[in-house]
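Allow me, if you will, to draw on your knowledge of protein folds for a short while. I have a record of one protein: its chain in single-letter code and its fold written as discrete structure tokens. The full record is reproduced below for your convenience:
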Amino acid sequence: MDWLSIEKAAESPCWNSIEALVRQQETSCIDAVPLLDKSPIVHTDGKNVDAALFFTSYGRIIPVLGKDFLFHQEDVRDIAYLAGNAVYLPTSVSGRKEAVDMFLERFSCGQKEQVLEHYIMELDRSRFKSEPVPDHLRIKICKGSLRHLLPLLPLQRTYEIQEVLLDPGTIDTLETYRWLKSILTREICFYAKRGFRYVSKANTNARGFDHLQIGGVFTDTRFRNQGYAYYTVSALCRHILEEEHMIPSLFVKKDNEKAIKLYKRLGFEITDSTKTVYLN
């Protein structure tokens, strides 16, 4: 088998094998699905594929490795020839924990700045448990659209400060505005509203072959531990299952016991683990 750069995977003779490899691990490499037509590097005999590397526009590498695949020294040489500096100067490496560890053992990609490990959780339709919103909460759960951009902006901004950015001091409100606009245009967003306050939100952030990934789950600090996140995520999951006919999946930090408990209450199960290494 040799390493090849595939210009358009869907038109390649090894497309079926590439698709099968990604489908098997879709929830851990869902960001790779839209990259299939953007020159992935694959290990192939021209038909069968047992490993693939995907490179995002913002410098992330997503290694997708078959069960029995192992990197050898000649693989390092061949990949470096095809990918150039992209393989040695990434901003991060992300995917199944085993694949990320194996990749970083072979490639010197810079100093580790932060390592995040998550459980992957999935929700099968048969396990979905939904409870009606109790009257005493006095909230409305609604589907978001562009007209909710400004009311949802404070929630999105605080979410990015607390949950996303490595350095919260780098928050750029204009960039947050643009990102939220993209979410409300291209993704699915639900929010909880109490009176005139937008108190909780949840949205999708990636689409695979079979899965829709949930992210951006956040509740205003003043309104936590009252069930708002549960009912917001529940409404989003119902939409994904009944309207999109897809499987909801998500990442959750391994030490976030409250979130894991919430998702299990909805019927989610832990199916795998993922790792993201941010590099300096």
Remarks:
- The helical segments are 15-24, 73-83, 97-106, 149-164, 173-186, 228-244, 257-266.
